[in-house]
Automatic annotation (TrEMBL):
Subcellular locations according to the entry: Membrane
Organism annotation: Pseudogymnoascus verrucosus
Span of domain Major facilitator superfamily (MFS) profile: 59-477
Keywords: Membrane, Transmembrane, Transmembrane helix, Transport
UniProt-listed InterPro entries: MFS (IPR011701), MFS_dom (IPR020846), MFS_trans_sf (IPR036259)
Pfam families: MFS_1
Bilayer-spanning residue ranges: 55-72, 92-110, 126-144, 156-177, 186-206, 218-241, 292-317, 323-345, 357-378, 384-404, 416-436, 448-472
Single GO term (MF): transmembrane transporter activity
Biased composition (Basic and acidic residues): 10-20
Protein's name in the database: Major facilitator superfamily (MFS) profile domain-containing protein
Location of the region described as Disordered in the Swiss-Prot/TrEMBL record: 1-43
C-alpha cells in the first residue's frame, strides 16, 4: 500500500508541474475578478501549485482509492466464477448473466435522487456512508447459501453504488477550472482502473484460502475484499473533502485565503461556484437540452465495452483462448495497466492543447481494431493483444467523455443532473454489456464482440455530431452574435 501511495504522489506532482507550466496560457482565458486571485495566478505560481497539490491529494487520490475498491467489488464476480462459484452455487443457463444484470436496474433508478442527496449531505458523508454499506453487502456475498440470496444482495449493491460515480465526477468538476479537468478525471478514474486491474491476481491469491474456516476459496474473495471496502470507507471519512463552498469544515485542509483563491478561479472560469436553491422543476428542465443525451450516449456506449470486458474477460481468456484458471485471472491485469498509462497520457495532452475530440476518436479506432483482432485473429498472442486495444481504448474514453461533458455545461444543479444522467446511461451500458457475452456463444463470443464494435462506432458518430455543433456555435459567439449557455464569454470545448 505504501508503494502505491508513493507512486500516486509522484503522479500528483506531475499534474501540479504541468499546471504551473500551462498557467500563462490558461489564465488569460478566465475572466478577471478579485485582485487576490489574479495576483496569485500571475505572480505567486508556487503558492497556486501548492494549493492545487493539496486539492489533488485530498480529492483525486482519495476518490481514486475509493474507485479502486468500487471496481474490485464489481469485477470480483467473474473471478469468483473462475475460482469455482458457478459449480458450488449450481449456476446453470443464464443465471450468472442474471446475477450481473440485476445490479443495474437499481443502479440506474436511484441515480437522480442519490445525486440530490449527495448535494444535501455533502460528498464526505454521502460517499463514505455508501462505501461502508456496500462493503458489508460484499461480505454477505461470501456467506450466501444459494444463488437466490446472492441475487438479492446484487440488488442491494446496485442501490448503494448508485450515486457513487456521479458524485465523484460532480465533486471533481467543482474544484477545478475546465482546462484542468481532463487529467484529474483521468487520474481518478485510471488510478482506480490501474489498481483494480490487479484484482485478478488478488482474487487468485485469496482463492488459495480454500478450506480455511470451512469456506471455499471463492467465498474468501468476497469476504476479504468486502472487509477492505469497509475499512477504506471509514478511513476516507477523515480525508475526503466537501464542495468548495463547504470545504472549511474539512479537517486540516485549506485556510480561508487559499480557499478563496480556488473559489475565485472557478467563479471566473464558469460562474457556478454557489448553487441556487434546489427547485425540482428547474432541475428536471435540464432534460430538455438535446446535448445532455449525446453526452449520456458517449458515456453509456463506452461503458458497454468496459463492463463487458470487466465481467467477461477472464471467462473469455479461459474458454475462448484456453488459458488456465490462474492465467485467466491474472492476464487481465496487463490490459488495465496499459489502459491507465494510455488514458493518463491522453488526459495530460488533452488539457495541454485544450481538445477532447481527437483523443476520443483515436480511442474509438483502437477499440474497433481490437475487436477485429480479438475476434478474427487465429493465434492466441494476437487475440490477447486485441484485448489490450479494446480495454485501453474504452477505459481511456471514459475519462475523456466525462471531461467533454463537464467542460460544456454551466451551473451546479445542471452539472448534478448531467452527472446523474450520464452515469445512469453507464448503468444501461452495463446491462447491455452483461448480456452480450453469452455462454452459448463460447468460444468465439461473436455477438459480444459485434456489440462492442457497434458501441465504439456510435461513440465516434455522437462526438462528431456535437463537436460540429460546438464548432459553429463558437464561431457565432466569436462574432458576437450569440451568448452560449447564458454566460458571456463562455465557449464550448471540443
Amino acid at each position: 500500500m505504501a508503494a502505491n501511495t508513493n507512486s500516486t504522489e509522484k503522479g500528483v506532482d506531475v499534474v501540479a508541474r504541468h499546471d504551473e507550466e500551462s498557467a500563462d496560457s490558461e489564465f488569460p482565458q478566465e475572466k478577471p475578478s478579485s485582485s487576490q486571485g489574479s495576483e496569485v495566478e500571475t505572480v505567486d505560481h508556487p503558492r497556486l501549485k501548492s494549493i492545487k497539490r493539496k486539492v489533488d491529494l485530498r480529492i483525486c487520490l482519495v476518490l481514486g482509492c475509493l474507485y479502486t475498491i468500487s471496481l474490485l467489488d464489481r469485477v470480483n464476480l467473474p473471478n469468483a466464477v473462475v475460482a469455482g462459484m458457478a459449480k458450488d452455487l449450481k449456476l446453470v443457463g443464464n443465471q450468472y448473466s442474471l446475477l450481473v444484470l440485476v445490479f443495474f436496474p437499481f443502479y440506474i433508478s436511484f441515480q437522480p435522487p442519490m445525486t440530490v442527496i449527495a448535494k444535501k449531505l455533502g460528498p464526505r458523508n454521502f460517499l463514505t456512508g455508501i462505501v461502508v454499506s456496500w462493503g458489508l453487502v460484499m461480505v454477505g456475498h461470501g456467506l450466501v447459501p444459494n444463488w437466490k440470496v446472492m441475487l438479492a444482495l446484487r440488488c442491494l449493491l446496485g442501490l448503494f453504488e448508485a450515486g457513487f460515480f456521479s458524485t465523484c465526477v460532480y465533486l471533481l468538476s467543482t474544484w477545478y477550472v475546465r482546462r484542468e479537468v481532463a487529467k484529474r478525471n483521468a487520474a481518478f478514474y485510471l488510478l482506480g482502473s490501474f489498481f483494480a486491474g490487479f484484482g485478478g491476481i488478488l482474487a487468485y491469491g485469496v482463492s488459495k484460502m480454500d478450506g480455511i474456516a470451512g469456506r471455499e476459496g471463492w467465498r474468501w474473495i468476497f469476504i476479504i475484499e468486502g472487509v477492505l471496502t469497509v475499512a477504506m470507507g471509514l478511513i476516507a471519512f477523515f480525508f475526503l473533502v466537501d464542495f468548495p463552498e463547504k470545504a472549511m469544515n474539512s479537517w486540516r485542509f485549506l485556510n480561508e485565503d487559499d480557499l478563496k483563491i480556488i473559489v475565485d478561479r472557478v467563479e471566473r472560469d464558469r460562474s457556478d461556484v454557489v448553487a441556487p436553491p434546489f427547485k425540482l422543476g428547474e432541475y428536471l428542465k435540464n432534460g430538455l437540452d438535446w446535448k445532455v443525451y449525446f453526452f449520456a450516449a458517449n458515456f453509456g456506449l463506452s461503458s458497454v465495452v468496459t463492463y463487458a470486458a470487466a465481467y467477461f474477460l477472464p471467462i473469455v481468456l479461459r474458454d475462448g483462448l484456453h488459458f488456465s484458471v490462474a492465467a485467466a485471472q491474472c492476464l487481465s491485469t496487463p490490459c488495465y495497466v496499459f489502459a491507465s498509462i494510455l488514458g493518463y497520457s491522453q488526459g495530460y495532452w488533452s488539457d495541454k492543447i485544450n481538445m477532447r475530440t481527437p483523443f476520443i476518436l483515436f480511442n474509438c479506432l483502437l477499440e474497433i481494431i481490437g475487436v477485429a483482432v480479438l475476434g478474427f485473429a487465429t493465434q492466441n498472442p494476437a487475440r490477447y493483444f486485441g484485448a489490450f486495444l479494446i480495454i485501453g481504448g474504452a477505459n481511456s474514453n471514459i475519462a475523456l467523455v466525462l471531461t467533454y461533458q463537464a467542460n460544456n455545461i454551466v451551473g451546479q444543479w445542471r452539472r448534478a443532473f448531467c452527472s446523474a444522467t450520464i452515469v445512469g446511461a453507464g448503468g444501461m451500458g452495463g446491462i447491455i454489456g452483461s448480456l452480450t457475452f453469452r455462454s452459448q456463444d463460447a468460444p468465439d463470443y461473436r455477438p459480444g464482440l459485434y456489440t462492442c464494435l457497434v458501441a465504439a462506432i456510435m461513440v465516434a458518430l455522437s462526438v462528431t455530431t456535437t463537436t460540429t455543433h460546438f464548432y459553429f456555435k463558437n464561431k457565432k459567439q466569436a462574432q458576437g452574435l450569440i451568448v452560449l449557455e447564458g454566460l458571456p464569454g463562455f465557449r464550448y470545448t471540443y
